[in-house]
Design goal:
The chain is an all-alpha fold. The protein is built from 9 helices and no strands.
């Protein structure tokens, strides 16, 4: 149920309510959500491997094919994805500073991960209908950056500090 709610809120981004619900999810929940999402994205690749058996894979048991797929296809895809998510979150951290928003890296990482839901689902549906290369998954980066720009602007700006350590709102001046 947690993952389903996270999925629904990810589809609603950059809606303010959906954004705050995603922020309340723990990092462990988001990591498991991404692993599930990547398993779904890997389905077309696995089907392609199973439907086009070569001589060696035809002689191998299905269990060994699954293990082989997990080690040499799914695991590298997940590692690359987490590295890219971290890189995009780092870029959005810089964007948030330029836009004078005080946002933590972990919050930005969860939001970036949530923005990948739509491109990954589109890729999966298209790949099931028409075989395409996994390199098309790189298109999630510009999409996520644009979505994150919208998400960052929803958060309020930082309060400007005066030399006395109090913000302008606290001191009563504008």
């Amino acid at each position: 149920m947690i993952f389903w709610n996270l999925f629904i809120h990810s589809l609603k981004l950059p809606n303010k309510q959906a954004m705050f619900k995603i922020n309340r999810a723990g990092m462990d929940i988001m990591l498991i959500y991404m692993l599930i999402l990547m398993a779904i994205v890997s389905i077309p690749s696995f089907i392609s491997i199973r439907s086009n058996p070569d001589e060696m894979s035809a002689q191998v048991n299905i269990i060994f094919q699954i293990v082989y797929f997990l080690i040499f296809s799914y695991l590298p895809l997940v590692i690359i994805l987490f590295l890219l998510l971290s890189g995009v979150a780092f870029i959005t951290k810089g964007m948030s500073k330029l836009l004078h928003r005080k946002l933590k890296y972990s919050l930005l990482w969860k939001q970036v991960a949530a923005t990948t839901t739509i491109p990954f689902l589109v890729y999966t549906i298209v790949a099931l209908i028409y075989p395409i290369n996994e390199k098309w998954l790189w298109l999630f980066i510009p999409y996520s950056l644009l979505m994150m720009l919208k998400v960052i602007t929803v958060f309020p700006r930082r309060r400007k500090k005066r030399s006395g350590g109090r913000s302008l709102k606290e001191s009563g001046t504008t």
